[in-house]
Write a structure and sequence with these properties.
nine-stranded mixed beta sheet, Arc Repressor Mutant, subunit A
């Protein structure tokens, strides 16, 4: 059995509970990628795969164990503050599979006693016994892929669950896990601000402490991209998208879950610790097919990626202990660009003294002054800068101007 901290009796969450403040230290995370799904959603460009045969979970567990060992060697001495089981659909794993993975992480690294351990789950794959098994294995936070709270749009998005199943899954997760988040997609075809506000109000009523709210983006190579290219998928224009985003910020803040990142909202203190590690540009290990990592070596920060194709990754790990296909030492200028791109997503902004240590220079004062004059960025003291709500809407352009 895993040596991670086990649940206390009656460990469910209650809405708007008080949480301890989250430290600004990035921490160290471990991301585990389970690449399999029951179906591929038409908007999804993630590394997820459908297999019409049973997955040999024992064989994959053995491979995860071997790659965890390799990543631990490359990050010796790190203390794990968060673990994230993502995908794909990790809730298709047996609880025994999850337990074996978490146990190996605990064996290879020192895991903080307060570590956040998140699993992604789809409402269509939720079962009470399975959820209790994940909780017994050490999972203390669930992220549900709800995506919409009406059946018409769930069908449009290619989801396998309906609204009733989503509500049942949320209720079950709240009863079993100390923390819960769920995702919604907005800016869907035909969606009005008023309809989205009503849906978001219901979502906040159902929520425990965290919501991830994403605008629908049409990614190249997806079925939605082909439909849009053919003129068969109308999406909101820029003005309506901005109005939907503004309504999201206002309503979530009024209801006690303000934004702490462009698309993420939480009761203060309940922010996702794992995702904060990414956005604060901390180190993390990536394990599994198509996983990415940022690990610190004696020569600097390495960008690491593994083979995306599950069966190819599996064979590579069995032959060589890992499926790494990319291991690039980042130049200080590349680190600085990544720090800026990630950190400006947060409402807390970035520490400019850290940026200066990487670049050896200050942010261009002329460019910053121009962005401030246009209401795109603002200073939070002498050494901290952040994007304004208006700047968040065009963040890529803001980052390009500041670099």
């Amino acid at each position: 059995m895993t040596v991670l901290v086990k649940p206390a009796p009656g460990g469910g969450a209650s809405i708007l509970r008080a949480f301890a403040p989250v430290s600004r230290e990035p921490g160290f995370g471990v991301y585990v990628h389970w690449p399999f799904c029951a179906a591929k959603c038409p908007y999804c460009d993630f590394n997820s795969h459908v297999r019409h045969h049973a997955i040999d979970q024992d064989r994959y567990v053995a491979a995860f164990v071997r790659e965890i060992g390799e990543m631990a060697k490359r990050s010796a001495g790190q203390r794990v503050t968060s673990i994230f089981l993502g995908g794909g659909t990790p809730s298709l794993m047996r609880p025994e599979t999850v337990d074996a993975i978490l146990s190996e992480i605990a064996r290879r690294w020192t895991v903080d006693g307060e570590a956040e351990i998140t699993m992604e789950a789809n409402p269509s794959s939720v079962e009470a016994d399975r959820f209790r098994g994940y909780r017994a294995a050490g999972v203390n936070r669930v992220s549900l892929g709800v995506q919409a709270l009406n059946d018409r749009d769930l069908k449009f998005l290619g989801r396998l669950h309906n609204v009733d199943q989503a509500r049942q899954a949320i209720g079950l997760a709240r009863a079993i896990f100390p923390r819960l988040s769920f995702d919604l997609i907005y800016a869907r075809p035909g969606q009005t601000v008023e309809a989205w506000e009503a849906e978001l109000d219901e979502a906040i009523d159902l929520a425990a402490d965290h919501l991830s709210l994403y605008q629908l983006t049409i990614e190249e190579g997806t079925p939605f991209h082909a439909l849009r290219k053919a003129g068969k998928l109308p999406v909101p224009d820029g003005e309506l998208s901005a109005a939907l985003y503004e309504a999201t910020q206002i309503l979530t803040a009024a209801r006690g879950l303000p934004a702490y990142e462009i698309s993420n909202h939480a009761v203060p203190g309940a922010e996702s610790r794992h995702n904060l590690t990414y956005w604060r540009y901390g180190p993390y290990a990536g394990v599994g097919p198509g996983a990415h990592g940022r690990l610190m070596g004696p020569d600097g920060r390495h960008a690491i990626a593994t083979e995306r194709h599950p069966e190819t990754w599996l064979k590579m790990v069995e032959d060589w202990d890992c499926g790494i296909v990319t291991d690039d030492l980042l130049a200080p200028s590349e680190e600085a660009d990544e720090l800026l791109l990630m950190g400006l997503r947060l409402t807390e902004g970035i520490d400019l003294s850290r940026w200066r240590r990487l670049t050896g220079r200050d942010i261009d004062p002329v460019r910053e002054a121009d962005l401030r004059a246009h209401g795109m960025v603002e200073r939070l003291g002498p050494d901290r800068i952040r994007a304004t709500p208006a700047g968040m809407l065009v963040l890529d352009a803001v980052v390009a101007d500041l670099c």
